# Entry
Amino acid sequence: MERVRLGMVGGGQGAFIGAVHRAAARLDDAYTLVCGAFTSDPARTRASGIELGLDPARVYGSHSEMFAAERKRADAMEAVTIVTPNHLHYSVARAALEAGFHVICDKPLTTDTMEAADLVRLTAASGRVFAVTYNYTGYPMVRQARAMVARGDIGTLRVVQVEYPQEWLAGPLEATGHKQAVWRTDPAQSGPGGAIGDIGSHAFHLACFVTARVPEQVLADLTSFVPGRSLDDNAHVLMRFPDGARGMLWASQVAHGYENALRLRLCGETGSLEWAQEEPDRLWFAPADEPRRLLTRGSPGVASEAERATRLPAGHPEGYLEAFATIYTDISRAIRSHPAIAADAMFPSVVDGALGVRFIAAVVQSSREGNRWIAL
Amino acid sequence: MERVRLGMVGGGQGAFIGAVHRAAARLDDAYTLVCGAFTSDPARTRASGIELGLDPARVYGSHSEMFAAERKRADAMEAVTIVTPNHLHYSVARAALEAGFHVICDKPLTTDTMEAADLVRLTAASGRVFAVTYNYTGYPMVRQARAMVARGDIGTLRVVQVEYPQEWLAGPLEATGHKQAVWRTDPAQSGPGGAIGDIGSHAFHLACFVTARVPEQVLADLTSFVPGRSLDDNAHVLMRFPDGARGMLWASQVAHGYENALRLRLCGETGSLEWAQEEPDRLWFAPADEPRRLLTRGSPGVASEAERATRLPAGHPEGYLEAFATIYTDISRAIRSHPAIAADAMFPSVVDGALGVRFIAAVVQSSREGNRWIAL
Amino acid sequence: MERVRLGMVGGGQGAFIGAVHRAAARLDDAYTLVCGAFTSDPARTRASGIELGLDPARVYGSHSEMFAAERKRADAMEAVTIVTPNHLHYSVARAALEAGFHVICDKPLTTDTMEAADLVRLTAASGRVFAVTYNYTGYPMVRQARAMVARGDIGTLRVVQVEYPQEWLAGPLEATGHKQAVWRTDPAQSGPGGAIGDIGSHAFHLACFVTARVPEQVLADLTSFVPGRSLDDNAHVLMRFPDGARGMLWASQVAHGYENALRLRLCGETGSLEWAQEEPDRLWFAPADEPRRLLTRGSPGVASEAERATRLPAGHPEGYLEAFATIYTDISRAIRSHPAIAADAMFPSVVDGALGVRFIAAVVQSSREGNRWIAL
Amino acid sequence: MERVRLGMVGGGQGAFIGAVHRAAARLDDAYTLVCGAFTSDPARTRASGIELGLDPARVYGSHSEMFAAERKRADAMEAVTIVTPNHLHYSVARAALEAGFHVICDKPLTTDTMEAADLVRLTAASGRVFAVTYNYTGYPMVRQARAMVARGDIGTLRVVQVEYPQEWLAGPLEATGHKQAVWRTDPAQSGPGGAIGDIGSHAFHLACFVTARVPEQVLADLTSFVPGRSLDDNAHVLMRFPDGARGMLWASQVAHGYENALRLRLCGETGSLEWAQEEPDRLWFAPADEPRRLLTRGSPGVASEAERATRLPAGHPEGYLEAFATIYTDISRAIRSHPAIAADAMFPSVVDGALGVRFIAAVVQSSREGNRWIAL
# Structure
């Protein structure tokens, strides 16, 4: 399969998530980075391009300039990755679709539900691929869990416990000028959600992906513990699912001792599943009245959905970059429309992205309006 | 210290918790079981007494008979343990106090807040010891956690995550006649709470004990997943603490893969703590910006409150019976009023018991009334 | 079943293992402590007797005095527990057998193989029960492992990895006068083995018990790391089993970070097992080509040998005292010769004790003679 | 830094380790694969080249052809990766050095100590970089452990426990024609070591790397458990280190339940360390008389040697490919001789490779000669 030609908006030198996207695109050799509009500062953009070994002519001052110039090239970029702060996703994504490019956008899709709905409509009209990088669903054992729920291994779903605690914002890091902290705690750049937007939306998507369900209603209690912080840094959410299942979601950025501790537990009528991001190659399965079993990536009996997302034998750890790369490689297959394999592609779409934006909005509304149930 | 002479109401042959109380009383050699009114069936009561090696003259047909007869003896029982189904706790406890005995009562204290309040009043007037066996606070590392919170090791409390999932009622076990399941799912015997009463109240007490705080308000969503069950078998509760801390409590008896998985996590401004009942000798401590530390029972640096509750060197596991015995031994010290050591006694009192009853009532009310905040 | 009347030699105030034996005897209510000869110091012996609530007339100045006096009583002690330092086991045990008492002796049985053999002979002639408290085989999941090996769950045994690291003697604790450290590092009191005798013999017995096999040969490398220590504090041993299985044993008392970390791993042709003393309620089972399973005490499917040694439901931790109590209770059944249940009794006998002494001797010899194979 | 132009010998379609080397080279964008001689079958070699997107003119029929052709190009490959079966390493590596290329060779370096010594000499004379991919030392927390030992965090080294159990050869997989199993169990292709060569040599190198020590003597007991297998599939090794430390090494390919369970434990006079490959981002540190600490990749206080090998924040798992890529990137720095950073390069050299070959030979000799000590 020929490599997809990729451009990038955002992600200049020093940006964390831009480097992650590039490594993810590179890992399975499914993309070539051909151009970028990395920052709004021409000198830093140029330096980023040189460091990445790009043709200087294809390092652009802005995304509009890039889209316009690339459209005219025979070897034009085919897809663009958007890794800017959240509040810029919408305008860049819209412009990319209008210019005819496939879009890969970091989450959350937008900071506003109207804008998100607009991108859903535009994508449908465009015939382009639009992916939102909820990267955690690229982990093989997450896909294993989804396959097991789908085939009935835990029976009717009853309880969904999902949590995503982190510790890095337990103090007023933004006051020190820490770049990642500053924009994440600024409503103008992040949107209305703090922890709930930055990581709660990952937890929400993970629960939806594995259960193949979306909650009907949420009830939330958001808190800002760090003095002076305007966005939430701790979120407690109750969820009700369509067929009677109930859930709890905890997202926190003030939880000492938790590095990146996304974790999902599902209890069904005939069994339970548990997965934790910090030990991603493992999935606990507790069938009723039998000993718990530790399923591992790459081991006998793992579902084909998980097997397909696996590079290494069991016991050879795969991690965050590999899961991210799986999302990227799945997207490349959809872009290439390879009929035999596109059917297997399993990545979060613009619709999933819009749902995440809706979730954030509903949680914020519930918390503001006295912790009442809000329909999604 | 002379052994405390103990009587028992309930706990005949085949009863789980009666045997646990007796082993707990025996383990540290602080009690002698001298009499009992084990069941309402004379033959089974007699057989229980024989099996326990009691003087047949002190195996009684009812608690009233026992209290009346024992009062007249020179070697009368001094304290009574009440291990009947929940709905009988009140009348037995009341009669015991009125007859002048110390009382050790299983939880929940009563099935009704009025009755609980009555016992608080009667106890105050009686000058007797009244203990409620929230046994999990007997674990040394729970006491270590309490000591650490008290001395400021995690700073201002922010988040309380407590959970108590079990699996044993995931199916309709009560329909098979299983004795433990039948009374626990019967409102007439258990009171208004199902999982929230049976185990949620343990989780609540644990959180209160370790944080030395009581939530001001709770908001709850209770569910009965097993068809035909009238009491909740899954409880999701949000909590608000007086000084701004927020909490989540999950209690479930339909969670496959969880045997007795009580777990408490506390996040404060400068650190976190985590304790799990199934690995009770361990306590995780995460101080800000330092590696997590695994504190263990019996190891250097453990607080005196934990050390005092320890029998064996580090690495020699203590378990459920030892923790239960620690509660019993603490109670015996209070009964003996040994001035030097009674100050160290640390066991749940009738006030704690009444608070637990109030918690159950508030949770049930919140769930019935549309999941709104209810003050405790 | 009537309680067994028990006497004790050794185990005065402050002795660790004496208190453990008494709690173990008491836990299941199968024994009554009736007399003792606790120390060679009359005052301390008396004080110990008072603290234990014994009849002062039955607190004796020496074991000979006790055996002589008790023989004459109608309510004489029936069995004696020997918890003196190792070098005294032989003479006390011999005298007890000659006086017609059942014997429960701490390990190692003796410090010398000749003496051990003598006790085996005397026991056979006496018709008395002689138990050696290798207490770790009282854990239910150890018995589960033994049952699984016996019924072929892991197929032909191939590899035995057993280890017992501790940290408490990593420094020259004996130089501070620490009582436990002093006698354990003194060949005159401990015998020829240091770590290999104190804990290596436990590891050896555990491996033999679970596999139902005894190594034919051992090859060992013993070291004394702490300056001035004459006995080994670290032991590396290779083992060859009769039917081709091979093993490694590591015992160490200088291993920081290990509290009491006895652990056994067995690999067979069709599966593996792993058990660790610090998480005693769990047993890992890895059948070929299937996910690992976590078996737990008290859960469905556990073998009757394990079930019988269980007091509490799954998830309610049992620990060191419970396992020790199981050994004691099994011994009491043998003493009572209750035909229906004695067949289930499963405790280490004088023969197991003698084998342990032989193991220590062989390991010491191998290490002294250039690390060559020594037959057991 | 300009990408290093890389060629590959071996590693055609379907080969496991070839794909791993390519992904490792690609991950940090430090190499460009420019040519290859992938198999001895021209059609499969061509197909491999096409799949990898290589210029067909640079897909060669043999390594000699490749070396000869590439030497003449202005854009010639600079380094060659050798991923053939073990018995071919020597001739290819020798030819590569003679042709002036840098060499990256999979382990073991050769199947014979003479050949290994020859490569050490040739490398010294050539002025080229020669790396042997003991990839596990690329893990950041392995480097953390090495830094901690070096700076004295555990004091004088006493005990080294290293093990590498796997399960995949527990049955006669080679009899099914399984390619990986066939060559690894064939002395003609693998050399004299089975499990000890394939994975024991990794364990040995890991222990040497972290302790910065090489054992002086080894004593080994090798076994072939699977009927018909001529090479060892289980290895038990005792080790003696120069300054008095003692060690045990267990390598097994018949250990059900162990996927790739390389694990190192070090006990020193003042502390211990433990690292396990299947949870590579974690390192346990037990300082004397203090709680155990769980150090994690990317967290505050981690040594610069570990920090430099880290791509992602703490809690975002890195795995096997990342560690392998770190080795590759370190090699690229040495090749580029970037003075500022080459000093940091930390990868196994031809000398380490030769030492591993010597280790395998000594272990095999010890086992054959009655399990006696053999000097390394």
About this structure: The interface with chain B takes residues 285, 289-296, 299-301 of chain D (CB under 8 Å). Residues 3 and 31 of chain D are 5 Å apart (CA to CA). The first helix of chain D runs from residue 16 to 27.
